[in-house]
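Exercise (ungraded).
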Amino acid sequence: MEKYGIGQPVRRKEDARFITGAGTYIDDVAAENMAHAFVLRSPFAHAKILNIDTSEAENMPGVLGIITGQDWAAEGFATMPTKAAISKKIDGSPLNQPPRHCFAIDRARYIGEPVAVVIAETREQAQDAAELVEVDYEDLPAVIDARKALAEDTPRIWDNIEGNVCLDFELGDKDATEKAFANADHVVSLELVNNRVTAAPIEPRGAVAEYDATTDSYKLQNATQNVHANRTTFADVLKIDAESLHHLAPDVGGGFGAKNSSYPEPPILLYAAKKFGRPMKWVNDRNEGFQSDTHGRAQFSKVELALDKDGKFLGLRTRTVGDLGAYCWTNGPFTPTGGSARTQGGPYNIPAMYYSAVAAFTNTMPTDPYRGAGRPEASYQIERIVQHAADTLGFDPVELRRKNLMPTASLPRKTPMGLDVDSGDFPEVFDRTMKMTDREGYAERVANSKKNGMRRGFSIAPYLECSGGMPKEFAGISFTKDGTVTLRVGSHSTGMGHETSKPQILAHTLGVDFDRIDFIQADTKATPIGGGHGGSRSLEVGGAAVLKAANEMLDKAKVLAAHLLNSNADDMDFADGVFTDIKTEQTIAIDDVIAASFEQGRLPEGMEPGCLDTESIFEREIISCPNGAHAAEVEVDPETGAVRVEHYWVIDDFGPIVNPMLADGQVMGGVAQGLGQALMEEIVYDDDGQLVTGSFMDYALPRADSIPKMELGYYEDAPTAKNPLGVKGAGEAGCCASPPAIVNAVLDALKEDGVAHIDMPLTPEKVWRAISEAKK
Amino acid sequence: MYDFTYHRPETLADAEKMFADADDGQYIAGGQTMVPVMKQRLAMPSDIIDLERISDLKGISRDGNVLSIGAMTTHAEVAGSGDVAKAIPALARLADDIGDPAVRNRGTLGGSIANNDPAADYPAALVGLGATIHTTSREIPADDFFTGLFETALEEGEVIVKVSIPVPDKAGYVKFPQPASRFALVGVFVAQIGDSVRVAATGAGPCVFRVEAMEKALEKDFSASALKGISVPGEGLNNDIHASADYRASLISTLARRAVAAAE
Amino acid sequence: MKLTEEIRIGAPREAVYAALNDPDILRQSIPGCEELEKVSDTELSAVVRAKIGPVKARFRGDVTLSDLNPPESYTLKGQGKGGAAGFARGEASVRLSEDGNATVLHYDVNATVGGKLAQLGSRLVDSSARSLAAAFFENFRKIVSGEDGGTS
């Protein structure tokens, strides 16, 4: 049992399936008599749809029918709602929510917006016919830059939305912050871009929809990371009873938030399945994914920091323009507002803070929470401004950071942004990371780089973020006579390893055999509620639900064990899968108790066979605050502008680690994704609004050789009391810390060249150009 | 992908006949460009004539100071060839740095140069080494073979049989990869053969080209320092989201110096 | 994509201007032009088969002549839909100046592509537009100056 206990590096159970090609992803799913849908998407960023002529396409071989925006509108379906956690403007009025239909009906507002859907016997036939659908567009001026979208003379994307504004937002104490700035010895400021990126999960989106006329019910298998919430949305759109829609996900190849979003294709597919009386399949190719998966980040900020003469931080002020794209998507308005506000200031002791933002519409694919959803932005903002303060005011950047960290004794506390920081030891974590980084050998490494014509730079990036996502989660445990244990959860792994970590918690708590635990997730029939995945919630909420259910099951098992031993339940002790009567020292193993639970004759009064089956819901009251300190050492080739991350060091405080191997995977993946944002990833629309990064030929993702060797460690001595496992969400920390660590290290390397700032991504040309221009 | 008829001839004669008989035939070598283009529906040939089974088009041999490489020889075979490594180590390394293992195991020398992607590596090597391209009907010097953006001197239906490459005294190739595709954002091949020096740049312009000012300087003094102060104008060079023309021009100078330093 | 170039044509300006308005000469000059039918004096419908390396796409669209200022200048606009490939638009402002018996043709070209061509081939847009424009005016020069022997 110990081998599979909490804290053990249990190898991922699901990997045997994934790495041998035995996973079942959406494109592996087939239904009998299935037809295929192909989505014809707008090639214009902004255009009126004057007419759609489907006559030629309809006569193509294999075509069953074509659905256009007009057809959809005629059905009277509801629009897709935004369910943003921030839904009101500063003046209390609701945010401006344009109607988001599943199709562009008379106007297309972003490239990739569905214009028509062709249904045919095969995908190829549907695609052949789609080429013959004649759409008569009238091109309109496209608004691509969110900052320009707000200008007075910019055309409106939505006729009734003035200034292309969705909402404004503020948090913090404006007056106190202004006072802090007025009394400061130093004020530094920077304009920062958080580049628009795409999640690029390895599996594109897709779904298979079925309709059963006899029961008037639907089944939707969907590459999503949130079956319950999306079921509600899809049912609402189609004006059907949510109970009549069985929504489930097969194996899902990555989500990173982009698969939380509610997309138009699944409801269209459900509608088509009913209309044509056939199961329907649709799967995006990669190019369609670049166009139509929600994007992330896309923020423009001005950050200002006030300091006293000794470098003590006095105040922080941030003003952000967030780019929402053409619509409020599922939770899009949240990211540049509440999502980015909460963790402003990171782990620093800053007495006065004020954050304000405006979220703008543009003719681009909408943005939605992407791994971190505002916290990576906030982390980048504070760490860049702190580095900038050190560089321009002459402070040592490491010392400046160290002395401004929240003192351990000041915890628990609430930050001026209202974040409840209950646990942690930021100075200790910082020092541990610094200790790993071999400062003694640094001067020699710098000299060696120089000898080769290179520059070397270093930066540490402490961070403080927070978890999020649905606060409630379900876990159900059931047993069979043959000894199988089934664990059903409402959380959802899209590759993170829950099939291992959740049973690990159960095996540890109950002492049952890890290998006998079956795992079921992402199925609206298997669990009454489910929060899917998002906001690093799965362990602290989902894992806590498993622990709660297991403990409640143990309470019942204790009664049964006592009955079987003729003891008193109060005298029963439980450890390592064995109940012991502390008075008689009689013992009974949990497996025997479970076996007995199926024999009516061995049960006490009030217990029935199957009585140990337990369902439980855990609700988190307050989000946790994962934190840590990352550090990067980079080498820059000043002649080409190429950046290489040479070393990367991490100490993270996620509370107790359930499975260090899985935690390492989360950290490394997050760091890699952040490295991508820092150095190479960017979704680019040209001036006409054309998407010019529509494939991996132009959208640069980090590859194995871009990733440095990472040294990871965990600080486990400050568990949070906010959940029974004491854990703090681990999934997004990596991409909060790595962009500032890497960017600041590059700028540290280029200090001697006089380069003060470069906007992400730090591509070779941008770095080369910054050096060339600094020389002038 | 649109429907097409697939042919796999075993002789060149059969291949040429199939091509001539097709409405809109397309030869395919390793398919590393053609297949993705077809999958994106950006080409719809009526017939695909796969040259893979034609053994006359394969193989590497050395005869005195000339290295011959069959058109259908894969990048992996060039990279792994003892003959190539011994004669022109820079060429072996160039092949080993094309794409990823899957691309190198399928992609071929002939396919690459017939396609003449402006960012491909082989055109730089063949022009830089002064190679000769042997086709079903003639021999074409590399200088005359690569004529423009995706354009070559090949006539409709003409098939590359092999390339012959003079073994240089020294050669070096340095590529600066485009961050996403890892094609050459710029690549510079430098070779010294007797008194003559060739410098060929790929990725930088619409088509591989020689940098004569550098060649002259290196003919006097084959050293990186001989290139000091020689720059290439940015005008007419490629400009895209990954690199502007002046950045590419700067890379040519930097990479040329490094290629000379690395030449062996 | 914007570019400005000039080309010298061994023919008098009036003849060059007339040729710029001659559908037959335009058809022979536009690279890959399969059809060019006159709809009115200034409007033509066109089918062009564009080939950029392995990419081949057939564009259907129209060509319009505007800002007519004989024999000095005019604007040639074209736009076409290329099915799965997306769409392309190009505009060439042409100005003719006399140079002895010859004519110097100045052109400012502005070209855009959309859809899959932009999404997958952005690196090639500039150089393709440059080479297509150059090919068009070179073909045109040869025909007008009689270098191609009067046939296409």
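Further reading is listed at the end of the chapter. For now, observe: The mean pLDDT of chain C is 92. The first strand of chain C starts at residue 2 and ends at 9.
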